């Protein structure tokens, strides 16, 4: 029997949300979800799922259908319904795109781009004051942090301060945060004329919370390396991992 990820307590909490999302409560629903989580954890091809979870093809089809209707994203949002957003921390992290993720038979861009590491995808993540995921965006690896930040920040709950590294040093971002009533705790670049006299270095020291969140998410192999051809499927993998971090809360 493969190692499972859902205790009875976790399943009781997750099952209520699944049913609220109009997911049919079939007899093997728990093992179907366990199969999806197993694939997230070990990063194996779908057809290599252990038989204990049921038919691999049925599990993949359900995962693909749930991704198409953004169910895993909504499940993540339902689990993270009460983040502590006094402080918010934002950062981006590269994910190597495996060769099996290339060649999707779809005309839409699938968020795989060229960067120094070759074919990569980028996860832009925001965590709350406890280091738990509050929201994220998936882009190609070539996309600059400053390009994605405005749209991501616009979706966030109001916060007293938003903390980021100097990759987010932009007057546009600083102005957006001021309009939201948040303090920008972002160090200015070396060539800045304004300097960092107004920086709260004590609060900036807690920026490790977002780095820690990436470390926890990348314990799951299907998040640390992208195997999914479709952006929406990889996005669902990240949403599953983020939601799993919220289950003990």
TrEMBL record:
<dbReference type="Pfam" id="PF13340">
    <property type="entry name" value="DUF4096"/>
</dbReference>
<dbReference type="GO" id="GO:0004803">
    <property type="term" value="F:transposase activity"/>
</dbReference>
<dbReference type="InterPro" id="IPR002559">
    <property type="entry name" value="Transposase_11"/>
</dbReference>
<feature type="domain" description="Insertion element IS402-like">
    <location>
        <begin position="6"/>
        <end position="76"/>
    </location>
</feature>
<dbReference type="GO" id="GO:0006313">
    <property type="term" value="P:DNA transposition"/>
</dbReference>
<dbReference type="InterPro" id="IPR025161">
    <property type="entry name" value="IS402-like_dom"/>
</dbReference>
<dbReference type="InterPro" id="IPR052909">
    <property type="entry name" value="Transposase_6_like"/>
</dbReference>
<dbReference type="GO" id="GO:0003677">
    <property type="term" value="F:DNA binding"/>
</dbReference>
<protein>
    <submittedName>
        <fullName>Transposase</fullName>
    </submittedName>
</protein>
<dbReference type="Pfam" id="PF01609">
    <property type="entry name" value="DDE_Tnp_1"/>
</dbReference>
<feature type="domain" description="Transposase IS4-like">
    <location>
        <begin position="90"/>
        <end position="245"/>
    </location>
</feature>
